[in-house]
Every structure is written in C-alpha cells, then in structure tokens.
Design a protein that fits this description.
heterodimer, A: MetI-like fold, 2 domains, two-stranded antiparallel sheet, 4 strands, globular, B: Rossmann fold, OB fold (Dihydrolipoamide Acetyltransferase, E2P), 20 strands, binds adenosine-5'-triphosphate, binds magnesium ion, MetI-like_sf (chain A), cell membrane (chain A), membrane (chain A)
C-alpha cells in the first residue's frame, strides 16, 4: 500500500470514529455506566433502609441460591428462589415456542397477501404498540378474571358452572406474555418470509417432497434468520418481564423481574437485587450465544 | 392409447380467471410425446407453452381434458407423486443447500438408501462436470453452473420425463450454444424423454427430434424440424419458422393464378378457391425477364448477408417477394436495384397453406 493510500485509509478510519462519538457517548453513559454501578452494588453490603453500605461482601451473590437459616445462621438452599427462576425460564420458553407456532402462520398469511393489502395487515399487527403496556395488560386482566368477559360468556353459554380460575396463575402470565410479545415474533418472521422465493415451493414439490417436508427442509431453514431474531426478541424481554406477571400473576406468581424489584423495594436488599440483575444478564447472554451457535450449526449439516 | 407415448395430453383446456376476464391459456390441446424423444414446444410469448408444461408437472390442473403419463391418467395427481421433474427457468435452486445437497434432494425425498443417494449424486456431478463445486453454496456459482446444477438436480431421480422451461434464456449467446450441445448430449446419454420449451426457432430446429408449434393456446403443428420447415400446415407456422413469402391466388386446374395473372404450379387443390400460397426465399430463382412461364418482377432492394444476398422484388401488382441468392464465389451476381427480371420456383416449392 502506498503512503497516500495509507493516509487515506487512516483518515477514513478516523472520520468514522469522530462520527460515532455521539453514539459511543450515549452507550457509555446510558448502558455501560449504570451497568457498572449495578455490578459494584452487587458486591456491597445492604443498608438498613435500602441503599447500600460500603464494604465488600459476597452475600448478594450468595443470596441468589441460599438463605441464612433463621435459627443457626447456616446456609440453606432457597427453594422459593429456585421456583421463581424455574417459572421465569419455563414461561419464557413456552412464550417463545407458542408465539412462533401462532406467529409463523400469521406472518406467512401476511407475506402471501397481495402487495396492496399487505400494509393493512402489517398495520393491524402494530396497533397494540400504540397503547401503553400496562393498559393492555389490564385489558387482558379484564378478559380472564373471575367475573371477567371470558367466564361470563362461558357461564352464560352454560359451558361451565363455576368460573375458571385463570387469573393469578402461571397460565394467566403465559397468556399475557404471548399477547404482548406476539408482534415481536411476527414482524421478523414476516420480513424473512417476504424475502422467501415462493418458486422454491414448486421446486420442492417437483422433487417429491410432501408439504411437511417442504416446510421442514426448505421453508424453515431459509426463514431461520427471522425465526432466530423473533425468538430473541420474545425470549429476552419475557425472561425479564415485570408488568405482566405483576398484573396477571398477582403477588404470588413472581418472575425474576418482580423478584428483583422486590429486593430494591420491600426486601431492602440492594446487593441481592443487583446480583440477580447481573445473573439475568449473564444467563441471557450465554443462552443467546449457545442458541445462535446451535442454530447455525444445524444449518450446516441439513 | 399408444405404448410408445411417454406423455399424452388429450383435449386439455386451461382457463384462468372468470367471466369476461377469462383467458384460455390452452384451448383444446392434444399432443403425444414419444418415449425417449427430445420434444420441443415452440411458440411466441403468451401462447401457453409454460401452462402446458405446468399441467404435465402437476402445478396446475386442467379446466378440462386429461394428462397421461406412460398411459396412466395423472391429471389430478399432485406434483410430488409424479415421476416427472422440471428444470425451472429461474433454476429455483435451494439457496441454503450446497450443490451436492441440491442434487441429492429429490433422491432423499424418495427415501433412497444413503449409499445410493451418494453414488447417484456423484454420478450426476460428473455428468454435468461440477465435481469440483460439490461443496459450494449455489449462490457462489455462475449462471451456467447454476443451470447445470438445476439440470443435475432434475435428472438425479431419473424421471420418466424431464420438463425444461426456457432453461437457456438467461444465458449469453456463447454459453447458450454450449449448453444446447450439452443438453442434447445429456438427453442421448440418459435416454430420458425431454419436453423442452423455447421461443427461439433456431434452438428448436437444431435440438429437437420433434417440434410442437403453438400459438394462442392451440397446437398448430407437430412434426420433425424438416416437416415443419418444408411442410408448414398454416400461415402462422410458415411465418413463425424461417422466412416465408405469401401470395394470395385463386386455384384453377393446374395451379393457382395470382392477381398479376401469372400461374404458379401447386399440387392438390380444388379449382375456384382463394388460397394463400407460401414459398421460402431460397426456393426462388431469378431468371432473365421474358422467360416463358416465369413471373416478371423488379428489384426493389438488395441486402448483403455474406454467404448470400436477400433480393427484394416487386411483382407487377406491387406485391413484395424476397428471394435468397447464394453469392457466387467470384465477383458479384450482377444485380442492381431497379433491374427487371423474372421469378421461377423450384418444382413443388410453392404450396397452399391455411390462413
Ligand atoms: N396464473 C395465471 N393467471 C392468469 N393468467 C395466466 C396465468 N398463467 C398464465 N396466464 C395467461 O395464460 C397465457 C399463457 O401463458 P404461458 O405462461 O403459458 O405463456 P408462455 O407460452 O409460457 O409465454 P412465455 O414465452 O412468455 O413464457 C398468457 O396469456 C398468460 O397471461
Ligand atoms: Mg413461459
């Protein structure tokens, strides 16, 4: 490379850095900074009325899995915590799978409409985003609560005699999360299906594939980037969900999000809350890495 | 029913749309395609070639009529149940699979044992000379290579019939010529019946055992390249394949009389009818004016084509006729615009065609 070329390259690199300065500053102040504070807090001592006291301690991290026995100060496994973690993971996975099962046909339907009517369908999908999440969640509450719409209709129709107890159960949280996160699955899937060359379907049938084989061997592998993006967009916020389990799960069916909030509120254990937040971040990162790696590996040996 | 037929279409009609907007893409087409032949469907854009191919492949169902494969009625059989494969115009290769995986796809769907899938795939890769590309994704191939993958993929399951919808139209001229030879070689080597669609008459004439000429949803004529070129059944076929002169005439005993009053020798006509007489430019000879039985004409234009010259002449009533003359190896033919001379036909050259 000549000197002039080198100068040119280093100049364009420098310019790129200058141009990204605002974005880098925002990232530093908005994301890295608070994260560092949370990380530091997780290694401090809890204050009496909330907040933290300066002094190094691993109690926050230890508190994720263990609690001190009230009688003899020995550490015992915190079953309640494990139940919350398990519920969070289970509900998030179920939500991801279910939004895919419902979202894929929806996205396919929209992508196969005429170019003229397609924007209308996409518009309908985005309408829920116009309303505050809390209000939408209360609307779901209104539908499924004991004297709610669903039970009233079912009782009027004579299909049930006592109201179904859905509200304040895992099922309620699940229904709420599927409802809230479905568009996040549909939109990336739609983008992927929209790019899919429908002529490949005929090529598949022509080469003796059944409808199911065409779906499994041709459509799904090709729209996989959309599926991966959709799963991430649904799984990550599901795992940290706060409003939905709070409103539909009541106080009892807690998920990690509520549990963390509890530590910063009534629990007055900020280090534990901070450690839990960090744990959530680590789990999500690892899960994503494994998932993306696995998804790409499968791609290679179809 | 003939046991020699690989594919047979009987009175197939395919209509798209409803009511006034209805289009009859195929209007009562019947054709018999023999086992092991290279059959070409030739016709202008929109004449229904693709539609007929799609009916044979099973992507469309006919509005009425029957499609037979090896004597079996397959009209309503889904495409994945028909031992027929297609080479798509767009190739439609699977982008997520490698070249070898594309070729193996059909065999896998047929649940062939893994060893057979492997050996057949290798055989096909060798047949289309793509062994070196086996592990590549199809997006990393040139147009000609993609074309070969599409061919190998469709040939691998050893279909009874291979359908090719303008497979060469996306290639440049040189590659196209190469692939024409390649296709012909593959057809001879595999012995599979090929149904080939094109709107390029030269491609059709040079490659096919038999040609079906289509126009406006109807099959106009089926025959060998020579049949169709020398004995076109109607004006459309005569004008679509090669160049043709048309003259209107009235039949009488011994021939057809032109508006100019000259008599042309044509066979097998009933006297007293208005007919169209067709003849090829190379079947016209130019002779000196005044020769007995020749038709007087005046040269209006001369177009030089290297080996031959197209000589446009006007008859006495103004009708234009083109004659193709081979250029003599020495000097020039001694023709000039405005020169008067006369036309003569080779015996049997002029024939009556339907309009
Ligand atoms: N799905 C369809 N819906 C409506 N009309 C159609 C459809 N498919 C084909 N047609 C019409 O049927 C006629 C024949 O179409 P076809 O595709 O068979 O022509 P083709 O001979 O293959 O032409 P080309 O050489 O341009 O490919 C055309 O007039 C076309 O517009
Ligand atoms: Mg076509």
């Amino acid at each position: 490379m000549s000197q002039a070329e080198q100068a040119q390259v280093s100049r364009s690199v420098r310019n790129a850095w200058y141009l990204s300065t605002p974005a880098l500053l925002i990232l530093l102040v908005g994301a890295v900074g608070p994260l560092m504070i949370v990380l530091v807090y997780s290694f401090l001592l809890p204050g009496k009325y909330g907040n933290v006291e300066w002094g190094f301690s691993l109690d926050g991290w230890r508190g994720i899995l263990f609690t001190k026995d009230i009688f003899d100060d020995t550490l015992v496994l915190a079953d309640a915590h494990l139940t919350i973690f398990w519920r969070s993971i289970k509900l998030s996975l179920l939500t991801t799978v279910f939004t895919f099962l419902v979202g894929f046909p929806t996205a396919w339907f929209i992508a196969t409409r005429t170019p003229k009517s397609r924007p209308i369908w996409l518009f309908l999908i985005t309408i829920p985003f116009w309303t505050n999440l809390l209000i939408r969640t209360y609307a779901i509450n209104e539908v499924i609560r004991t004297e709610g719409l669903l039970n009233t209709i079912l009782m009027k129709l004579g299909l049930i005699t006592t109201p179904l107890q859905i509200i304040y159960t895992d099922v309620a949280v699940f229904i709420g999360m599927v409802y809230v996160y479905l568009p996040l699955m549909v939109l990336p899937l739609f983008a992927a299906i929209d790019r899919f060359d429908m002529r490949l379907l005929e090529a598949g049938y022509d080469l003796y594939a059944s409808r199911l084989q065409v779906l499994r061997r041709i459509i799904l592998p090709i729209v996989k980037p959309g599926l991966i993006a959709g799963s991430i967009l649904v799984f990550v916020p599901s795992l940290g969900a706060y409003v939905t389990p709070r409103v539909l799960g009541g106080g009892k069916q807690m998920m990690i999000g509520n549990f963390i909030e509890l530590q910063f509120g009534q629990g007055r254990n900020w280090p534990l809350g901070a450690a839990l937040s960090m744990l959530l971040l680590i789990v999500v990162t690892i899960a994503l890495l494994v998932y993306v790696r696995y998804a790409n590996r499968e791609d290679a040996n179809v | 029913m003939n046991a020699q037929n690989a594919v047979e279409a009987r009175n197939t009609v395919k209509a798209f749309g409803q009511g006034d907007a209805q289009v009859r893409a195929l209007n009562d087409v019947s054709v018999e395609i023999r086992k092991g032949e290279f059959f070409t469907l030739l016709g202008p854009s929109g004449c229904g070639k693709t539609t007929l191919l799609r009916l044979i492949a099973g992507f469309e169902m006919p509005t009425s009529g029957t499609i037979l494969l090896d004597g079996q009625d397959i009209t309503y059989l889904p495409p994945n149940k028909r031992p027929v494969n297609t080479v798509f115009q767009s190739y439609a290769l699977f982008p997520h699979l490698t070249v070898a995986q594309n070729i193996a796809f059909g065999l896998q769907m047929l649940d062939k044992p893994a060893a057979e899938v492997k050996s057949t795939t290798e055989k096909m890769l060798a047949l289309v000379k793509l062994e070196a590309m086996a592990g590549r994704k199809t997006s990393q191939l040139s147009g000609g290579q993609q074309q070969r993958v599409a061919l190998a993929r469709a040939l691998a399951p050893q279909p009874k019939v291979l359908l090719l919808d303008e497979p060469l139209s996306a290639l440049d001229l040189k590659l196209r010529k190469e692939m024409q030879i390649e296709l012909k070689r593959l057809q001879t080597e595999t012995g599979i019946t090929f149904v080939f669609v094109t709107h390029d008459q030269e491609e059709a004439l040079t490659m096919s055992d038999r040609i079906g000429v289509m126009s406006a949803g109807k099959l106009q004529q089926v025959g060998t390249a020579k049949d169709i070129y020398t004995r076109p059944v109607n004006r459309f076929v005569a004008s679509f394949i090669g160049e043709t002169n048309f003259l209107t005439a009235t039949t009488e005993a011994g021939g057809a009389r032109l508006a100019t009053g000259d008599l042309i020798e044509v066979a097998g006509t009933t006297p007293g009818q208005r007919v169209t007489v067709a003849f090829r430019p190379e079947q016209v000879r130019l002779v000196t004016a005044g020769e007995a039985g020749a038709i007087p004409a005046t040269i209006t234009n001369l177009v030089y084509f290297g080996t031959d010259t197209h000589c446009h002449v006007a008859l006495n009533d103004g009708t234009e006729v083109v004659a193709r003359l081979q250029n003599p190896s020495t000097g020039d033919a001694g023709l000039a615009i405005g020169q008067t001379l006369a036309l003569r036909f080779a015996p049997g050259a002029a024939q009556v065609v339907e309009d």
